[in-house]
Structures are given as C-alpha cells and as structure tokens.
Amino acid sequence: MQFKKVCKSSEIQNGQIKNILVEDKNVLLANIDNNIFATSGQCTHEKVDLENGFIMGEDITCPLHLSRFNLKTGKSLNPPATEELAIYNVKIQNEEIYIEID
Ligand code: FES
Fold it and tell me: How far, in Å, is the centroid of ligand 1 from the Cα of 75?
C-alpha cells in the first residue's frame, strides 16, 4: 500500500464529491465539513457509479435503488445493498490529496 497523489484539494469544495480512477480502481472522494474521505466509487449492489448519487450530510444515496452509504465509514445503511464500500486512507500535503491504495 502506498499513497498516490490524486488531485488538488481545491477541486472538491465542501459538500461535493468527485469520481477518480486510481490504479484501475474507481474511487469516490467526498468533502464533508472540509475533511476529505475516499471510498469505492461503485455501489456494492449492482456496481452503479455513485458519483451520480445524492449526497446528504455524511451519506450518499445510490441513484439506482436508493441504498445509502456513509462516506466516512463506507457502511451500507439500508437495503438492497448489504456490503459496505471499501474505504481508503487520505492525506493532504501541499494542497494535494493523496490516497492509500495498493
Ligand atoms: S445499484 Fe445501488 S442500490 Fe442497487
């Protein structure tokens, strides 16, 4: 596992999400109260991209069948999705966002 630079912190304002591809992994970055979190970018139910979902507070709702996930913990909060999202460690250095990924 190593940290990879993914984008500038200024590219994601508070309350926004951004989808990126890192080492062939679809990753969703979220700015929640000016802290950056990184999860898998696809719903665990049917692999739908979550970047088109609806963000509310710490949660994102899948646009297809409306399962909600917590963006800080990856936890699935209601069916039909039951598996949690993968989460990745994040660090900010010199206004760049890095995530830890293998
Ligand atoms: S694809 Fe996300 S809840 Fe079904």
Answer: 14
